[in-house]
Amino acid sequence: xxxxxxKLDDILSAKSEEELxxxxxxxxxxxxxxSALLSIIDYDKADKTAVSDLNKxxxxxxxNLKSAPKRKIKEIQALAKSDVKIEKxxxxxxxxxxxxxxxxx
Length: 105
Known about the structure:
Number of helices: 3
CATH topology of the domain at 1-69: SH3 type barrels
Structural class: alpha+beta
Radius of gyration: 22 Å
Helix content: 10-25%
Protein name: DUF2187 domain-containing protein
Number of strands: 5
Strand content: 25-35%
CATH class of the domain at 1-69: Mainly Beta
Shape: elongated
């Protein structure tokens, strides 16, 4: 890829010539003159230890970057959405939490 084709927060497919054995997906965090800093977001299980050692960050030369398949990006975005549900707590429940009583006495 060319530097002009890469933007911050892009999700790209990449390969590392030294650190990782398999291709991976990364999110662009910073762009340098000939390379980009990627946050590793999807990788092969064989590279789990290496990714951990790298703290999920790696600098990759532009020549080792390419557009990620749209299908894979959609998969990752679907996984990233949280299923957090917010419920209203009744005042009586709050009182029990703040002032618990020992019912065994």
